[in-house]
Specification:
With 166 residues, the chain is mainly beta. The protein has no helices and 17 strands.
């Protein structure tokens, strides 16, 4: 490992690119970026506009994204699996105030609290700590440990509340 590796010997980000002659909005230049830091590297895949907020550690964006619909991680140890226009973290305060958010995929989903999870679907929000939205459309789990399994326009706003779907 000390002499046989793919990467750099400095403390700068490393990118894997394909068809580097394309324009930045085509999504074909950078296909993977590795950002070093003292704690846990960030890994950013998919569209070259996908991003991790400066100072975040341990973030992963596996893929997805598009021009104007980028995926982002704004808080430590956040994950976006794919899809488009998804965000893990609250994008406010420090990068450590709402860690461990996860959006598996879908479109326009946000996991903006500590340990919040959105499985997929579109325009869903898990904004309570330990809250989850399984999928569907326009669902919100804002209570602590609240869950919305899916469906359309459901709200779980009380602590430990749950909505099965519909």
């Amino acid at each position: 490992p000390a002499t046989n590796f793919l990467g750099t010997t400095d403390n700068q980000a490393f990118e894997i690119r394909v068809d580097n002659g394309g324009t930045a909005t085509e999504g074909r230049r950078r296909v993977m970026r590795f950002e070093p830091n003292a704690t846990s590297a960030n890994i950013i895949g998919g569209f070259n506009g996908n991003s991790v907020t400066a100072g975040v550690v341990g973030a992963t964006i596996a893929g997805g994204g598009a021009n104007g619909l980028t995926n982002s991680v704004t808080d430590d140890y956040g994950v976006v699996g794919g899809g488009r226009d998804n965000q893990a973290g609250d994008g406010a305060g420090t990068t450590a105030d709402m860690p461990y958010g996860t959006v598996s995929g879908g479109l326009g989903n946000t996991a903006s609290a500590t340990f919040a999870t959105v499985g997929g679907g579109h325009d869903n929000v898990a904004s309570g700590n330990d809250a989850a939205v399984g999928g569907g459309h326009g669902n919100v789990a804002s209570g602590v440990e609240a869950t919305v399994a899916g469906g359309l326009g459901n709200r779980a706003s009380g602590a430990t509340s749950a909505v099965g779907g519909g």
